[in-house]
Design goal:
19 strands; 6-stranded mixed sheet; Immunoglobulin-like; 2 helices; 246 residues; globular; 39% strand; 4-stranded antiparallel sheet; single chain; mainly beta
């Protein structure tokens, strides 16, 4: 089964190359990466999602020096977690993009499912993750993206984190501890499904925000096809350096 086919729901095969699926997913959503992608059959069909009548809707905005500006044409995906399995909204329900007012709707969600939003648009990054929500009614959830040129690597450059969340910063380095500039860095609450992502800047520095504060989280970095992941303990926000075997 080719990864580009629409699947019903997914269970990941042990031992498959995790970064290939992550970058393939972002690329098909419209996010350009510098990595050569190889679509691999990382998932197989096991379950059918529960049909529901709940809707997650919101507005995607670009963070600018003048404030927030709605973004048209941003690709919207979400990881939908049911009791026994999870699935990509895009693959089950088809492509969803924001309209001229930056609005989107993810319909057909079942009660008690948890949803993690993902936004992608060429030339932008989603540095701050949208909060994970549990569907017990229709929910309004907005998200922000920022142009790659305007991304930041210091927590002082963004608003303070909301209660229960944190920013995480550090540097991406090679095995000789030399900084890697332009490395892809992400926060993956579900393996291979980034909820926040950016590129490292000068000195290999990066910043991700909207990360849950009270739980262990996984961050991953990819530089020219070489990747590494790191588990960050609850409460840690700074000094999270990732060494990529490059």
């Amino acid at each position: 089964m080719e990864a580009s086919l629409r699947l019903t729901s997914f269970t990941r095969h042990p031992g498959t190359a995790r970064r290939r699926w992550t970058l393939f997913a972002l690329t098909r959503l419209g996010f350009a990466t510098s990595v050569t992608l190889v679509a691999t059959a990382c998932y197989e069909v096991h379950h059918h999602p529960t049909a529901g009548d709940l809707t997650l809707s919101g507005v995607v905005s670009e963070t600018t020096s003048q404030g927030l500006r709605p973004v048209q044409g941003a690709a919207i995906d979400a990881w939908v977690q049911e009791a026994r399995f999870g699935y990509s909204y895009w693959d089950v329900h088809g492509p969803t993009r924001t309209d001229s007012a930056g609005q989107f709707q993810l319909a057909g969600l079942a009660n008690d499912t948890t949803v993690q939003l993902q936004v992608a648009k060429h030339g932008y990054v989603q540095q701050c993750a949208a909060p994970r929500v549990t569907m017990d009614s229709d929910i309004q959830l907005d998200a922000q993206i920022v142009s790659i040129a305007q991304r930041v690597s210091s927590a002082e450059a963004i608003a303070p984190a909301a209660p229960g969340f944190r920013s995480i910063s550090g540097a991406i380095v090679d095995i000789g501890k030399r900084p890697l500039v332009g490395a892809f860095v992400d926060f993956e609450p579900v393996e291979d499904f980034p909820a926040a992502y950016t590129y490292s800047e000068a000195g290999g520095r990066y910043l991700l925000c909207g990360v849950p504060d009270g739980e262990m989280v996984d961050l991953c970095a990819d530089f020219r096809g070489h990747f590494a992941c790191l588990s960050v303990p609850p409460g840690q926000s700074t000094g999270v350096d990732i060494t990529v075997p490059y």
